[in-house]
Specification:
About 45% of the residues lie in helices and about 15% in strands. The protein is an alpha+beta fold. α5 crosses α7 (about 205-215).
Length: about 290
């Protein structure tokens, strides 16, 4: 068994991990991280509390979770200092695997997919251990076989959680271009960027850029930018007491009216009402609600 990895606080934001399976040691993270990949965690012996975007998830022992790691995520607490497994799958690989469309749609919308009904936790530990070793042998037949096994594992996870979606598949758009657009937005959504700026970044006509982006994310580039800005504001409203006007401009909105309209359209609440309902404390001393999974 490899020596467990701990989160590196100096790690560059948005830096990818690549296709891999690693053993991680639980650690309270001082900041959130983001990377443009599907992340899967398997917790055979410990439980951890995640802050994913602005929601707390208390993840119990024996659980497998999957989420889109471009959302800000941060381990803020754990019980039992035992290692757990982390699989990361790049955006391009994810689409090559032709996973159920509804599963990918839910992941890209920010939903956390879970499964608790593992038949044999010790068997799963051995399987994840094997994957962690075989994915180090890049270019080998073992590496290719391991990739196929992980693909099959995720498809089973998808079919368990979304059984009605199994007939729908994603027809892959030009993934390298879509990934570059998503990364450009993730790095610049707090700036006054538009869909045309995103298209220009990858050298495409705005209409075509919008068309292939929508095939991957089921929303236009403009709506995706707005969604990222609202997501950023939700997190800030949940963990800080900064003035709402300041947060609106920090999030990339050009006016308070645009911010309020976009925020209320998604949440059916004003920013002030949202903060009153969702303000969190990260010291875990004050009573709060968790999403327990």
């Amino acid at each position: 068994m490899d020596t467990p990895t701990r989160f590196d606080e100096s790690r560059t934001d948005l830096k990818p991990y690549g296709l891999g399976c690693e053993l991680w040691q639980p650690k309270r993270m001082k900041r959130e991280e983001r990377h443009n990949e599907l992340e899967i965690n398997f917790l055979p012996d410990c439980s951890i509390t995640y802050l994913i975007s602005n929601r707390k998830f208390k993840i119990k022992r024996g659980t497998v979770i999957a989420f889109w790691a471009l959302m800000p995520h941060q381990v803020i607490d754990f019980k039992k200092d035992c290692p757990y497994y982390v699989i990361t799958i790049p955006f391009s690989v994810l689409h090559e695997w032709n996973l159920p469309k509804t599963f990918l749609d839910s992941i890209f919308k920010g939903e956390v997919q879970i499964t608790r009904d593992l038949e044999d936790i010790e068997f799963e530990k051995k399987r994840f251990d094997r994957w962690s070793l075989e994915l180090d042998k890049r270019g080998s037949e073992l590496y290719a076989a391991c990739s196929l096994e992980i693909c099959a594992f995720i498809k089973r996870l998808a079919l368990k959680n979304l059984p009605q979606s199994c007939e729908q598949k994603v027809k892959p758009p030009p993934i390298n271009l879509v990934e570059r657009m998503a990364m450009f937005i993730a790095s610049n959504f707090t700036e006054p960027i538009k869909a045309s700026d995103v298209a220009r970044e990858v050298g495409l006509h705005p209409d075509y850029a919008n068309s292939i982006f929508k095939k991957a994310f089921c929303k236009t580039i403009s709506n995706y930018i707005i969604g990222q800005r609202v997501l950023y504001a939700e997190r800030k409203l949940s963990i800080s007491d900064e003035p709402i006007t300041s947060l609106a401009f920090q999030s990339g909105f050009s006016s308070i009216s645009r911010f309020n309209a976009a925020f209320k359209k998604k949440n059916k609440l004003t920013p002030r009402e949202y903060r009153k309902r969702h303000l969190l404390t990260l010291d875990l001393k004050i009573g709060q609600e968790y999403v327990e999974i």
